[in-house]
Amino acid sequence: MQASHSKKKILIVDDHALLREGLKFLISQSKEDFEVIGETPSAVETLKLVKRLRPDIVILDLSLSDGSGLDIIEPIKKISQSTKILVLSMYQDESVIVQALKEGASGFIPKSEVSEECIQALKIISNSDDLYVPASYSRVVLKGLLSDDGSKTLSSREDQVLRLLALGYSAKEIAQTLQISPKTVQTYRQRITTKLDLRRRSDIVRYAISKGLLKEEEIKGIVLPKDDELI
């Protein structure tokens, strides 16, 4: 299906077919210059579709059939920097909203308010660089975006990588375990060290223990080398 040049192309990413159908109907009835050019429930498929279709906007659920939408915000922006991302979620945790916006999303809507907020959000983010969140979230989200502590929040995927680093896994082993590329592992590792300023494996281990990322039996099995290598 080809979209006309005057219309903004939209890709819908959600693991519920009923919601995808509802969004398509809502957009088609809006009389705005939007056109849905694709849909998928999959994080992996999303990246392929973004590369092939180059949508103007991705409507992205955070809970997908094969992973977290939060983990693909940055990869989407790397593939197509001009693509805007409107995040949907049934979870309304402010820290997750802030993290999504810091990763590169242009807006957030709770699923409970999609019918009231979606078209307005699409209009705002498609025509400007402004961020969009419902009025009831604006104060707490702004506070989170301006807070230094927010920059130290790890995504769920970064937590997974950090945990495996603490256990002594190599980049290749982490890639095999999480089914991602070694290059992606390196990207996550750099982001972790930048966010948390942790440079040595002993620092990683202490942080993982403090956050409850390691089981008791795993902690007992950790052996640090004498030179405590840089990660």
**Share in β-strands:** 5-15%
Determine the CATH topology of the largest domain.
Rossmann fold
CATH homologous superfamily title of the largest domain: Response regulator
Low-confidence stretches: none
Cα-based radius of gyration, to the nearest Å: 19 Å
Helix-strand pattern: EHEHEEEHEHEHHHHHHH
Distance between the termini: 47 Å
Binned, the helix content reads 40-55%
Bulk shape: elongated
| Global structural class | alpha/beta
Compute the number of helices: 11
What value does the average pLDDT take?
Answer: 85
Which strands sit side by side, in order, in the main sheet?
Answer: 2-1-3-6-7
What does the largest sheet look like? 5 strands, parallel
| The number of domains | 2
Account of the protein in words:
The chain is α/β, with parallel strands linked by helices. The protein folds into 2 domains: 8-145, Rossmann fold (3-Layer(aba) Sandwich); 156-221, Orthogonal Bundle (Arc Repressor Mutant, subunit A), CATH 1.10.10.10. Helices cover 50% and strands 14% of the residues. It has helices at residues 17-28, 43-53, 73-79, 94-103, 114-127, 135-146, 156-166, 171-178, 182-196, 201-210, 216-220; strands spanning 8-13, 34-40, 57-61, 63-64, 67-68, 84-89, 107-110. The strands form 2 sheets. A 5-stranded parallel β-sheet has the order 2-1-3-6-7, sandwiched between helices. A two-stranded antiparallel sheet has the order 4-5. Helix 4 (94-103) links the parallel strand 6 (84-89) and strand 7. The longest helix has 15 residues, at 182-196. The N and C termini lie far apart (47 Å). One of its GO terms (molecular function) is DNA binding. Residues 9-126 form the Response regulatory domain. InterPro entries: CheY-like_superfamily, NreC/VraR/RcsB-like_REC, Sig_transdc_resp-reg_C-effctor, Sig_transdc_resp-reg_receiver, Tscrpt_reg_LuxR_C, WalR-like. Residues 147-212 form the HTH luxR-type domain. Keywords: DNA-binding, Phosphoprotein, Transcription, Transcription regulation.
